[in-house]
Amino acid sequence: MTLKSRLNGRLLLAWALSVLLVVALAGLTLSVVALSKQRAADSARDGAMKAARQLALDFTTYDYQTWDADSKRVLDDSTGQFKQEFQSGIDAVKTDVVTNKATSKGDVKEAGVVSNDKDSAQVLVIVNAVVTNTASAQGVERRYRIKLDLVREKNQWLTADLQVVG
C-alpha cells in the first residue's frame, strides 16, 4: 500500500468519524430539548393540579365564624369572571351562612387534569364535604364534582371558572 492510499484511507476514516460525531451531537441536542419540554409540561400539569385541588378545598371549606377569611382565600386564587361572580355574591351567601350557622369541611378525594398547556388547564375534582347548620347539627355529607378552568397569570395558577357538574 502506498503512502498516498494510506493517507486517503485515514482522511476518509476521519471524515466518517466526524460525520458520526455531528449526528450523535444533533441527536443528543434534540433529546435534551425534548426532555426539557416534557419537564416543563409536567411541571405545568402538576402546578395546575395542585392549584385546582386547593381551590376546590377552599371553596368547600368554610365556617360561619370565619367566613370573611374563608371567602378571601377563594378570591385570592381566582381571576376573571369567576372572581367577579364570587365577589358579587359574597354578601348574600355570608348572610345565609351566618344566619344558619353553617360550616362545611371539604376533603378532596380525586382530581384529574382533563387538558392543559403552559398557560391554561381544565381539572375535574371530586370533593366530599360534611355540612352542618341549624337544621342539621350532626352534619350531612355531600359529594361534589367540580370542573375548574385555570389560567396561569404571573406564574401563578388561578381559577377562571368553576362549575359544580354533579
TrEMBL record:
It is found in: Membrane. The keyword Membrane applies. Keywords: Membrane. This is Mce-associated membrane protein.
